[in-house]
Amino acid sequence: MRTSAVGKTGRTRGVTLMEMLVVVCIIALISAVVLPSVAAGIESVRLRTASDSIAGFLNAAVNRAERLQQAVVVVISVRENRIFLYSSEPGFARELRMPSGVTIEGVLPPSAEGSEDEEGRRLLLLPGAAIPGIGVRIANQRGSRRVIRLDPMTGFPHTESVGAEE
Fold first, then answer.
1. Measured between alpha carbons, how far is 122 from 120 in angstroms, rounded to an integer?
2. Burial of 50 by CB count in 10 Å (0-12 exposed, 13-18 middle, 19+ buried)?
3. Fold of 37-162
4. What confidence score (pLDDT) does residue 166 get?
5. Alpha-carbon distance 142 to 15, whole Å?
């Protein structure tokens, strides 16, 4: 027994090739309009996440120096796009890699020599000593920038947006 979808007019119901092409074209147009804004949103989220990670990483370094009374070295490597942390306790080392699309542009203020050494910019955090007032400038592929500064008075990092973002 064969059943067929036949309407009241006697024509077979279904979708024509032309109707399907129109629907596919509409979906393609909507995708073309939405995709760039979705990509920009993802880049913005990556930059925000990277700045939060750097702030947390610097905060952990300051806390380790103060609470555990250990000397802590922070190495910011622009060339390797990473931040390293190690202390006087043997075997303690941490590393923070930037997510894809986010790069470390530099450390503020610039070093006195005008260029970073081979391994990167080194900061020494000593227990009971003053916190260095530094900033880490990062950027994404769309040109948005942020600076994560370590406040020398409080020791807490805070983030500033630089230039056009979002």
1. 6
2. buried
3. minor pseudopilin epsh fold (3.55.40)
4. 40
5. 42
| CA 61 remoteness from chain centre | 20
User: Exposure of 52 by Cβ count < 10 A (0-12 exposed, 13-18 middle, 19+ buried)?
Assistant: middle
| Residues 71/126, Cβ–Cβ less than 8 Å | yes
Smallest CA-to-CA distance from 116 within 104, 103, 107 is with 107
So where are the chain's domains?
Answer: 37-162
Express each pLDDT in 111-126 by its tens digit: 766 555 556 899 999 9
Beta-carbon contacts of residue 165 (< 8 Å; ≥ 6 apart): 44, 47, 144, 145, 146
Nearest Cα to 80, choosing from 116, 43, 133?
116
